[in-house]
Amino acid sequence: MPVLNPDGYEYSHDYDRLWKKSRSQHMARAPGGLLDSAMTWLQQKRDPDKVGHRVDLDRNWLYHWGKRGSSKAPCNEFCAGPAPFSEPETKAVSDFLMDQRTQIKLYISLQAYGQVVSYTVKANSTFNSELLDDFLDVAMVGTDGLRKKGSKWRYKVDASNDLIEQRSGCADAFAAYDIGIPFSYTIQLADNGVHGYLLPSSAIEPTARDAFEIVSGMLDYI
């Protein structure tokens, strides 16, 4: 799927280049904390229209929804929404994954930016240390394959979840723990912070090529 958030993507090109949340129109409920309440009030004063458009789609999945690394405040960058799968985008993909779960061996969420391959490490009763070792092996094969292709960019494997921000309610964890897809990852694409979200057009094709090489290496190994 080329874009999970088409409405947000269009908005980012027409109005706000750094916009990354959905454009959903939920009624803004009062957040629980004093700081969140103050931030929501301030956002309403500055831009009442923007408060209703509020969900980070990578915080809107069922697994550990609404916990550490997310917020219920509409103006927060990591707003998880009013409930898991409150967004039609995440609901549609989750339904597809559920219907096709026996056919899918690898799930990858492509995001910007950081050049990191990460996977969830909090094991439950069905995910033991050997399976987590397999997660690491597949990720390493993908990044090593890219290096052998001579890419100028290097991707790090985040086996301890300390290279990216805390996440809960994210897509890769849902695919692994709630659906049971054998291998599930988030790949944060180029670059490493020099340009950040404003990646120059000249880097788009190399970034896509590198992502293809990583994913191809993973698939060949699996």
From TrEMBL:
Record GO cellular component, one term: extracellular space
SMART domains: Zn_pept
One Pfam family cited in the UniProt record for this chain: Peptidase_M14
InterPro entries: Peptidase_M14
Keyword Lipid metabolism among record annotations: no
Cofactor needs: Zn(2+)
Domain (Peptidase M14) ranges: 1-222
Record carries keyword Acyltransferase: no
GO terms, biological process: proteolysis
UniProt KW keywords: Carboxypeptidase, Hydrolase, Metal-binding, Metalloprotease, Protease, Signal, Zinc
Molecular function GO labels: metallocarboxypeptidase activity; zinc ion binding
Similarity comment: family membership: Belongs to the peptidase M14 family.
Protein name: GL18261
Organism: Drosophila persimilis
Gene label: Dper\GL18261
